[in-house]
Design brief:
Layout: E1 4-8, H1 31-48, E2 52-55, H2 65-74, E3 79-86, E4 98-102, H3 107-123, E5 128-133, H4 137-140, E6 146-153, H5 157-163, H6 166-183, H7 219-234, H8 239-255
Parallel strand pairs: 1-2, 1-3, 3-6, 4-5
Antiparallel strand pairs: 4-6
Helix pairs in contact: 1-6, 1-7, 3-6, 7-8
Length: 261
């Protein structure tokens, strides 16, 4: 049976206090700017690897914790992953690194936390703060094994520079996906889109025009690319950019013979 993974992108975009101190250029990164991008990339990775996913906090608003766990429980999800960036105090300081949490006494939770944490510290350039127990709501109230990850400190300049970088966000999502695949004994499928071989042109047809009623792109290839456009859509709040990502996804659907959304 295909496993269902509940993906929680931490706090809402405007949740008070969940942000970095001001950088020298005046920029401030809100925690959800990091969380939601990692969640979107993770969602794409998991789907590519054969999982079903449930985004328990879609959009930019701060969904109550009880709503999140209730959604996962009602859907009978097989696993719950909550994505966060950490903080210590109100200003820049020396606390930094990755830590992973599970609910006290949860054997399955600890096993999953150990596996996922090992992937994170192996693949990301962060200090290892270890696997820990915590009585967090999403760990306590979820009926499935649950893990919460803190992927760096917003209050540490070195960590914060990583947290706002696209490369680190992508790396975190990939390592989380590898860990979840390992938890369930599912092979991790790397990102690779290999085009179908181009056949020799039929001399009786115009090589620049597809035959009527045929798709110019396979459904499989289109559905490998669309999740990354969806991730880009989730990574921005710019309305014009979102419109363009949605348009491109629909062009891929039409090119592969699928209905636009």
């Amino acid at each position: 049976m295909v496993k269902l993974i509940a993906v929680d992108d931490g706090h809402g975009l405007e949740t008070p206090g969940k942000r970095t101190p001001s950088f020298p250029d005046g920029m401030v990164m809100k925690e959800n700017e990091f969380n939601r991008v990692v969640a979107a990339y993770l969602d794409a990775h998991l789907k590519r690897c054969g999982f079903r996913t449930l985004l328990v906090a879609p959009g930019d608003t701060d969904i109550p914790l009880n709503n999140r766990t209730t959604a996962a429980n009602n859907a009978m999800a097989d696993f719950y992953i909550s994505i966060h960036a950490n903080a210590y105090g109100a200003g820049w300081n020396g606390a930094r690194g990755i830590e992973t949490y599970y609910y006290p006494g949860s054997t399955a939770g600890k096993q999953a936390a150990d596996i996922i944490h090992a992937q994170l510290v192996k693949g990301t350039p962060m200090p290892n703060r270890g696997v820990k127990e915590a009585n967090f709501h999403v760990l306590r109230e979820s009926t499935m094994p649950a893990v919460l990850v803190e992927l760096g400190f917003m209050t540490n300049r070195e960590d914060a520079e990583l947290l706002r970088s696209g490369a680190y966000r992508a790396e975190c999502a990939e390592e989380l996906a590898k860990g979840i695949c390992q938890v369930f004994g599912v092979p991790y499928i790397p990102v690779s889109v290999v085009p179908d071989p181009i056949p020799d042109p039929d001399p009786d047809t115009d090589p620049d025009q597809p035959e009527e009623g045929t798709a110019v792109l396979s459904v499989e290839d289109a559905n490998k690319i669309i999740p990354f456009l969806s991730a880009a859509y989730m990574a921005t709040t710019d309305k014009e950019a979102r419109k363009e990502f949605n348009r491109l996804a629909n062009e891929l659907r039409k090119a592969s013979g699928q209905e636009p959304q």
